[in-house]
Amino acid sequence: MDEKVKYEMEFPIQVSPALLYQYISTPSGMSEWYADNVNSRGEFFTFIWSESEEEAKLLSKKSPERIKFRWLEDEGTDFYFELRIQVDEITKDVSLMITDFAEEDEVEEGKMLWENMVSELKQILGSS
Fold first, then answer.
1. Does the predicted TM-score (pTM) go above 0.90?
2. What is the C-alpha separation between 111 and 18, in angstroms, rounded?
């Protein structure tokens, strides 16, 4: 298996941090933009798309700031994905910060996927 590389993205979103947190941390919220369906049993989340199903373990969660998962197939590695809400102290601008890992030749594809999903999230939230 090739080594995965870490990448980070920032998406400004004009919405309250509390509302955004509901969409990044709950199965019902994530079902609206991240996957077709999301189920959770304790610390395990199942993400369902039309073609596939993946399980992730909840590594940490801090309301209303961030949530961090590790795919079960990456168990025993340092790979994870994290959704973090950042609020600028002065302007109060809200951004969704995403940290993820991908094989080096799949980073651009991963970024495009996140851009599409966050674009859908912004539409749902009524943010530009």
1. yes
2. 25
CATH number of residue 102's parent domain: 3.30.530.20
The enclosing H or E element of 123 equals: helix 107-125
Upstream peptide bond of 64 is cis (omega within 30 degrees of 0): yes
Cα–Cα distance, 20 to 29 (Å, whole number): 9
Q: Tens of pLDDT along 48-100?
A: 999 899 999 999 999 999 999 999 999 999 999 999 999 999 999 999 999 99
Cα–Cα dist 127/122, whole Å: 5
Residues in the chain: 128
Q: 69 - beta bridge partners? A: 58, 81
Tokens read off for 93: 């601008």
- Range of the structural domain that residue 56 is part of: 4-125
How many domains does one find in the chain?
Answer: 1
Ordered strands of the 66-71 beta sheet: 4-12, 94-103, 81-87, 66-71, 53-62, 44-48, 37-41
